[in-house]
Design brief:
alpha/beta; eight-stranded parallel sheet
Length: 293
């Protein structure tokens, strides 16, 4: 048995262009989001669990959490059904965070369709970077909380007050800060602003910080030293037991190899206590996503 602690990758995207009813707009030429461009160069007929595991070989990946990757489709649950079949056959993904637009009138019905699949343990709403209204989303958020699922959202740090509102109103809802809600500009001033805003979230134990896309388009020529303060800053604010790592794969491939990124994570946290390292590499993820190693 390996002496290297396992890694639960909490942010991975799969696709298969042969699956009817699904659409991955971020793989199309000309798509851009935040600072992410050229993602069409990642496209291939498919990228699923076997392709991912081959690329991640040697990183001691103990499980994969698939994060919704489709948009602009008639039924978001088609992705969930497809992934459940993959998991049944191959054992991965271990957990799925499905798509749901929580402000939409049919959000609760969408959640019910996702709920038919046992590996679905949460939802992400990619529209929350532009809109997140607790009152409008209340039926969906109440349903997510009742299911014991996580809710993954993104806001600029100037708008973290809405996270506080949700954390207080739904104390049993695990709110995951997507990609750590890290700022586009990775400057010292922006890190200080993010830190001050994040400290106001720290008293709410149901808020979890996902450290992912830290080595990405906002830091395309990243080094261990350039991403170290961002990673350790997240841990300092929220504690290791409320932080977890993801790779944003395969988008992260545009900026380096899988092995190098996971090795960087391990090196950066290497001076933390053993328990903290366990939390960051796998234990927080197993709790949030109901994964058994």
């Amino acid at each position: 048995m390996s002496t290297v602690r396992p890694f639960i990758d909490t942010h991975v995207h799969f696709w298969d262009h042969n699956v009817e009813g699904l659409h991955w707009p971020w793989l199309e030429p000309g798509f851009s989001h935040r600072k992410n461009t050229d993602m069409a160069t990642l496209d291939a007929p498919l990228f699923t669990a076997p392709e991912f595991l081959a690329e991640a070989d040697g990183a001691n990946v103990g499980g994969v959490v698939h994060i919704q990757a489709i948009d602009g489709v008639e039924d978001y649950a088609v992705e969930t059904a497809w992934l459940q079949g993959m998991s049944d056959r191959l054992g991965e993904p271990r957990a799925m965070v499905a798509s749901c637009k929580v402000h939409e009138p049919d959000a609760v019905a969408v959640l019910a369709r996702h709920g038919r699949y046992k590996r679905c343990v949460g939802v992400r709403d990619i529209s929350t970077s532009k809109r997140l209204d607790a009152e409008a989303a209340a039926p969906a958020l109440s349903d997510i909380a009742a299911r014991g699922w996580s809710f993954e959202a993104r806001r600029h740090h100037d708008d973290f007050a809405i996270f506080e509102e949700i954390a207080v109103r739904w104390p049993n809802l695990t709110l995951v800060m997507s990609q750590g809600c890290l700022p586009l500009e990775r400057t010292d001033d922006e890190r200080r602003a993010w830190t001050e805003a994040a400290k106001r979230l720290a008293p709410h134990p149901n808020i979890v910080c996902k450290i992912s896309a830290v080595a990405g388009a906002s830091d395309p020529n990243w080094t261990i030293e350039s991403i170290r303060p961002w990673i350790l800053g997240c841990v300092e604010v929220f504690g290791a037991d409320r932080c977890m790592f993801g790779t944003n794969w395969p988008r992260g491939r545009l900026f380096g190899s899988y092995a190098d990124l996971v090795a960087a994570y391990r090196e950066i946290i290497g001076k933390l206590g053993e328990s903290d390292q366990d939390d960051l590499m796998y234990r927080t993820a197993t709790r949030v996503y109901d994964i058994t190693l």
